[in-house]
Structure of CHAT domain-containing protein:
Amino acid sequence: MRSRGLVAYEQYETKRDLEDLELAIQSFRVAMEATEDNSPEKTALINEFGMALGTRFERVGELHDLEECITLGRLANARTPDDSLDKPSRLIDLGASIFFRFEREGKAEDLKEAIELETCAVDLVSDNHANKSAPLNNLGTSLYTRFNLLGSTDDLEKAIELQTRAVELTPEGHPDKPSRLSNLGNSLEWRFGRLGNFEDLERAIELKCRCVDLTEDGHPDKSVYLNNAGVALQERFQRLADLADIERAITLQTRAVELASNGCPHKHMWLINLGNSFERRFLRLGDLGDLEKAIEAKRHSVDLIPDDHPNKPGYLSDVGRSLQTRFDRLGNLEDLASAIAFQARAVELTPDSHPRKLARLNNAGNSLRIRFGRLGNLEDIDSAIMLLTRAVQLTPDGHQAMPNRLNSLAASLHDRYERTGNLKDLKEAMTHQARAMELTPNASHPDVAFNLSNLGVMLLKRFEQSGNLDDLDQAITHKTNAANLTPETHPDKPSRLYNLANSLMERFNRAGNKPDLEEAIRYSKRSVELLPENSSSRAPMLRLLGLLFDTRLRLEPRTYLDDATSAMEAFQEAMNHTNSHPLDRLRASRQYALCLSNFSLFFTVDPRLTLLEAYQHALNLIPQCIWLGNNVRGRYASEELPVVGSTVSRAAAAAIKVGEYGMALEWLEAGRAVVWSQTLQLRTPLNDLQRLHPKLADDLHRVFQALQHVDSPSSSRLADPTIQPSLKVEVQSSHNYALEFENLVARIREIDGFENFLRPKTLAQLADACSSGPVVVLNVHALRCDALILCHPGEVKHVPLPSFTYNRATELHSDLWSVLKARKLRDRGQNLPGSGRSKNDPMFQVLGDLWKLVVKPIMDVISTLVTLPHVTWCPTGPLSFLPLHAAGIYRPNQAVETVMDVAVSSYTPTIESLLRKRQVQTSSATNDYPRSLVVSQPARTRGFNHIPQTTKEGRIVASFTGVSTDILHDSAGTVAAVLEGMETHDWVHLACHGVQRQGDPINSCFVLYDGNLTLSMLMTKHLPNADLAVLSACQTASGDENLPEEAVHLAAGMLNIGYKSVVGTMWSISDRSGPIVMAKFYEVMAEKVKEGVKELQPAYALHEATKALRKECGVTNFIDWVPFVHFGL
């Protein structure tokens, strides 16, 4: 049977017919069972059987064949004396089998053992022996592999030495000559990658192409050599950008894939490499068809191998990077979500001990950095930095991947610096970038230009912070060198020219050197020319070009008349470039509008859009800029919100200037409290849709519910072994639900009668908001300040405020903030110093200017319509933080003329929120008191002051609300109990500490017995039947100074979750004031309930309560009575 097996195996070696191999294995197995252990043939038979199994593993890929092969190989070696002539070959065979297992499972101990066995084989064979080449080749291959994992140059040099000798000892015509040439070529190619010696790459290509020529088409290794030659040509293309190289690489690799059947164990590798070549050609030529082919090939490679295959994580990571490339080009968020999912899966499948783990963590970190760049969630960049720092720290010194990982870490730190302004991040980024430059092998290495460009960007940022012109000059020098080192055909050439133009423009703005401006224009134009039309970077590059033309025109308008048209066309193309980031497009829209305003007389062609159409275009981009798929914290922390706010304010000012008051009001409504409005959208009743299209309504309701309750978990878990679940949950939840939401809404808007579904409200739709009194929307902008009064039945009255300016609003806010800061008005229970006792008190000026410059001109108009009206204020900009309800002329201990004398004031974040409150029947429709929940927290809690008067306040409230009141006092007032109580009570009264967290507004909170009830917790609630919330705590309506248009405070939060009326405070209140105000407030409320008054109970009650407190403490003791405010109906 042994003879039969040998014959069958020889036939297989010749014909490659799998049936022959199966017959050989079957014969060897029978022979093994029939042969005694002490037979002289037994050891040879064991070795032959093992070789046959190893061959089947190479062909079919079944791991059990390899395990049995290794077992037999160990047995054969144990039975073979060291002085036997067969010992070296059996060591070689065993070493090769263990090496194959390493390739399959990635266990470092297997590679170590393979090297030890192959070293023994080399030592046992004399230098002049004919078979010396085999152990030399195998040991060289194993050392080359270890170099790939650990990055030791010594391993690579030794591998090349051994493989060179193996090639020399292998005669021409020997069947192993091609494989040994290929192995040497691989090692030379890697040494080129490490040291940058171009001769190594040329020699590698020569050897690999020779392998292809030496091998017949029917040979099983032909596809291997075709693939390897393609990879080397791909590498040369990366260096020289010669299209002939990448074209030939694709031809060779396509042929390799064609020659490999789906059962071929190497086909997955050929597909990955072919995908890489298509992607590189895409980066050169910009043909999206190549990128699609790359992604298709890589996805196919992933599908061909099981999850336990050692190459699976690397391929998943590769697919992720290609999807990321498509996102970079097209800006499709689905690609970014999928890319992160693939990266997460790659990390999940890579054991912690695997040498590639760090590379995959690095890739995952880069993906998070890109998502941060698109969505602005600080958690993403924090997690990216944590991952990338870990990758750098655990990478051994001298490892070839170290410069790349330092680059990634430096870029992420730089990105975080741009968001937070923390100089420590910028310093660390520059340190890491400089180290990456030091570790780059030589001046001709392709990463030199990359490093120079990045360091130039960071030097520009340091200049912007310090004003040191040396930094700016050095930044320009580095960027110039980077651009010069980058070939015209390189995909990074446009971005490097763009960066250089940006720095030159900065130096022109600082020093006024006109050649800098001319050079900037030249480089900027070239960057746009080289950039593919569909690149997502096109809008910012076009916008810079437009700004440069704009700058030159302002400098010499008579010389450069054509620049007006050139600027307009650049801005116009940028704003319409749908692949670009929405914020870049919005900024371009704004610049287009400014260009129309400033240079309309200079245009040589007619603009495609009018000024107001340009602003409308910008406003249409708001939902894309503040994307619903980002979590709430990310949306509030994004750089987009301030840009949106300022753009909307400027647009409204432009509309008002030409008398389009209704349009201005609609725009201000659409651009204010964007995040709140998005939350309210998710609570839109779907009655009409449900009646006519129930399936769509059910799908949309499901997505509504999901988006309300999915606030992505922190991606900081990436540093843990459980990285993949946290990423997958995030990708599959908020992002995918947001994309589904957009698709559903687009489908619904195609239906007759639903064209305006979930679009911003029109003036006609907003009209009902003023049925109980005028709503005053205030627009404060550097161009002009105005009030728009929405009156019943939907008329908009315009009140210009010519004596008021944006700067004055900012000064008044600063003056008020200084007063509050000086008096430490942070916590309830502070011993608040009195105010208004001296005519020098800044509050006189603040309230007086508000009256004279803002409120009185408005009240003069309103008073002609109704006596003692109820006015709802909807301010913007710095006015959002100022007490309009208390404006007036005061003298020490005397109110001369105030708004409280002529109106009852309320506030609202948006007009639409008033509409929603009117759509729901209030629970006070009967004369019975609603169910009330009173929460009082007098004890000293987690560093906050003791506030004993909250106990008295709770009793006062209960005395009016009677038996329908439940009290949670002290230890009963836990977070869970309060949340549960809010579900079952119509009114809630919170007497406790409150905190407005500047910079992290959704963590603003009520301080309860066992923890904080945060705004983010409240935002997950929906209480459509809730009626009144009284927030007798501090800072519950103060808001975040960085987000004046967003009303991010606890009072707005209570409105958002369903309460129709909310009483809050603009700053800390005295512990003694609470009971006084609340006693009067609930007394008036009780009277209103008895009288059956359904509307405006809380607004009038608070008005009377505030007057009572003002009488008690003194009319000019502003700090005590001014902070109490009413929101809603």
